[in-house]
Structures are given as structure tokens and as C-alpha cells.
Amino acid sequence: MHNHGHHHHHHTLQTENIGRTFTLAILINVIYVVVEMTVGFIYDSVGLISDAGHNLSDVASLILALTAYKLSKVNSNAKYTYGYKKTTILVSLINACALCVIVFFIFFESIEKIITPGKIQGGVISITAAVGVLINGFTAWLFVKGKKRDLNIKGAYLHMLADALVSIGVVVSGLIISYTGVYLIDGIIGIIVGIVIIVSTWDLLQKSLRLILDGVPEGINPIEIAEMIKRTAGVKDVHHVHIWAISTNENAMTAHVVLEDVSDMEKVKHRVKHLLAEHCNISHSTLEFETSQCDCAECNVLVKD
Predict the structure, then answer these.
(1) Global pTM?
(2) pLDDT tier for residue 297 given thresholds of 50, 70 and 90
(3) Which is it for the CA torsion 105, 111, 116, 122, positive or negative?
(4) DSSP states of 222-278 as a string?
(5) Contact (Cβ atoms closer than 8 angstroms) between residue 190 and residue 106
(6) Going from the N-terminus, what domains does the chain have, and what CATH number goes with each?
(7) If you average pLDDT over residues 64-86, what whole number do you get?
(8) Sheet strand arrangement including 284-291
(9) Potential cystine with 114: which of 126, 149, 187, 242 (Cβ 3.0-4.6 Å)?
(10) At what angle do helices 151-180 and 124-142 cross, to 10 degrees?
């Protein structure tokens, strides 16, 4: 019990730190959007104003991700027995879909620029794009540590990295055009950036869909876990194993465990739950205990890969 409490306290602190990171990222990007919009109006640049609008959509996605984190901390109730933890998975899926839509518009605008290349304003616009690289790059860096542990954070990270890449594309194409006069390069770099974004987003989209459909989370093998449980002292067999994600960083499992001796039930329960929590990244487990004489209709049912 002591270990479980310590783990919960650590998780709460980690979530609060992530909440502060999201808040800082939102604040920085709101300031940048205001500056970019202002510069766009002063210099009458449609490009900068539209880019500010795009960056504003990223602020919205960050706010959505932060909201999901806040909701994941809300206690469960009679209607939502796991609370609102799964909103983190839903938001990671929304972010993945939003990135796909952004790539579509990048491709559309890039092809249009290749067909009808136009002059690109230099100077202030290039400097503003360079500032965008720094802002978006720094915001993406804020999420680097958490992106491997949490799909919601990975979605925010990819959003900001995508923006940084777009800004780099604007700076690079601006420099090439100013030296060569080849306006076609702007559209070509746009397509390259779009391909990079779609490749990095595919993994997020795939994992988000898997978790929203209650698929087994990545890195967890139900066959191996069943074998580990079978090797636990006092366990004769295990079947009807189901594993799913209740949030982007918490997993749950149900299973039927056949006991060698029913009097050892409490000891076996403690051993199995400890094994799942400490070694299998499964923090919520519900176990149904049976004897070998039990005629279970679901015997030998196990989720296959």
C-alpha cells in the first residue's frame, strides 16, 4: 500500500509539472501570435497575418491538451468510473488529425506557389519567421522529455515542431530566393516540410487510434504478461486477459486467475498486482480468482497480438 501511495504522489507531481509546461507554452505562443499579427498589419503582409492565424490554431491545440490534463485529474464519479482520463487519448487523436489537415493546406499552398510563383517579401518577414523558429523550437523542447511517455505530450511536441519546420522553410526559401531569384524554391521546400510532418505524425495517429479503440498499449504483450502471472507462486493458470489504456500514461487490465489453493488468494492477489504495477506498467488491475474445478465458459480466452 505504501508503494502505491508513493507512486500516486509522484504521478501527481509529474502531472502538475506538465500542467505548468503547457501554461508556459501557451503564454509564449500567445505573445508571439500578437506580435506577428501586429507586424503583419503594419507591413501589410498577408503571409504573416495568415501564419499568425495558423499559430493561433496551435495555441488552441495546446489549450485543448492542457484541458485534457486538468480533466484527467478530476475524480471519478457514478457516470465516469475512471474519471475523465481518456480525454488525453481523445486530444492526442484530435491533434494527429489536425496535423494531417495542416499538411493538406501546406501541400495545397505549395503546389499553388510552384504553379504560380510570386515574389516573397524579405527583411522584416524573414526576421519574424526566424523568431518563429526560436519560439516554436523552444516550445517543442519543453515537451521533449515527456513525448516518449505520453501521446498527449507527443501531439503538442509534434505540433510545435511542425511550426518550427514551416518557419525554417520560410527562412531558407527566403534566403535562397534573395540570392538566386528562383521563386519556385518556396513551394518545393513547402512540400518537403509537409512530407516530414506527415511521416512524424503517422506514428501519433496510429497509436491514438489504437488506444481510443481500447487496443493493447504499445510495449505491452498480453501473452508475455499471462506467462509471467502463471509463473507467480500460487497460480495454476490465467485466462480471459484484457489490457487497455485509460489515459495516455495509465493502463488497466482484467484477468481470470486459477489458484492452486484458494486459501492463498490474498497473497497471490498482492503478488500479481505488484508484478503488474512495478514491471508491466499496469496501474489498475481487476482479478477474478477461480479454482481448477470452476467451469468457466471463458477459459483459454486470451487477447492475441
Answers:
(1) 0.72
(2) low
(3) positive
(4) HHHHHHHHHTSTTEEEEEEEEEEESSSS-EEEEEEEEES-GGGHHHHHHHHHHHHHH
(5) yes
(6) 2-212 (1.20.1510.10), 222-291 (3.30.360.10)
(7) 85
(8) 235-245, 251-259, 284-291
(9) 187
(10) 160
